[in-house]
Specification:
Length: 244
């Protein structure tokens, strides 16, 4: 094996070792309780060497969030593509998201933390939506000030990873929106449903089901309803609201 190829392989393996070590620490601790020193120590590298691979703790955290989002997108795509009608696609989406919640709770937790407001993502989101909007309908139709973006957005690793996470989150939203439109066309979903608003409502519904308030959970338990039963009944309620 050529020396250059061996070095590339060793570099890739070391990068994976760093990500794996950081993932373990972020899964077992809150983001703010993990330092680059902790990660360097766990992977048995100097802090200086660690910074050759990742420019900040934030970028390392984002690449781990991205791992989880890729799994979620794959699960949702597989579920939605396996059914035909719009209402079936919506229910398959909800089922896939629930399976992700059960099978990958740590990835879900850090994905939610990414969207919690802890990180300054506003300009990255604005830039991404501006690019998409201009590509679809043209710059002249953009309302002034709708997507304020500074000219000095960071181009570091964390910006790159955050952008891809946001893009994949957009894809999830678009899957919901398209599924609703398919359902309206095939008449499995009511024709008076606004696909954008319904997709937003479903996204908010999923977020709230993931983080049910402890007092609400206790109230449900008092009346003999566990969270699994509540999830099933809620999804059925959503189905009845949308079904034509």
């Amino acid at each position: 094996m050529a020396i250059s190829k061996r070095r590339e392989r060793e570099k890739a393996e070391r990068r994976k070792d760093i990500i794996d070590a950081a993932e373990k620490l972020f899964f077992s601790n809150n983001y703010d309780n993990v330092s680059m020193n902790d990660i360097a120590e766990d992977v048995e590298l100097s802090k200086a060497t660690l910074y050759l691979y990742f420019d900040s703790k934030e970028s390392l955290f984002f690449v781990i969030v991205l791992r989880g989002v890729k799994i979620l997108n794959s699960m949702v795509h597989a579920a939605v593509d396996n059914v035909s009608t719009g209402i079936e696609k919506i229910m398959a989406y909800l089922t896939a998201y629930h399976e992700f919640m059960v099978d990958y709770p740590d990835y879900l937790r850090i994905y939610n933390y990414f969207h919690s407001g802890r990180f300054n993502l506003r300009e990255i989101i604005n830039k991404q939506y501006l690019n998409d909007f201009v590509e679809q309908v043209g710059y002249s139709t953009v309302a002034p000030g709708a997507f304020p973006v500074s000219s000095d957005i960071s181009q570091g690793m964390h910006s790159e990873f955050a952008t891809e996470i946001i893009q994949r989150s957009q894809k999830l939203f678009e899957i919901l929106k398209l599924s609703i439109e398919i359902g309206i066309a095939d008449e499995s979903i009511r024709s008076d449903v606004n696909s954008v608003e319904a997709a937003a409502l479903l996204t908010l519904f999923i977020d709230s089901m993931i983080k049910i308030r402890p007092d609400i959970l206790k109230s449900l338990e008092f009346y003999g309803i566990n969270q699994s039963k509540f999830n099933e009944d809620s999804e059925e309620f959503i189905k009845r609201m949308l079904t034509n």
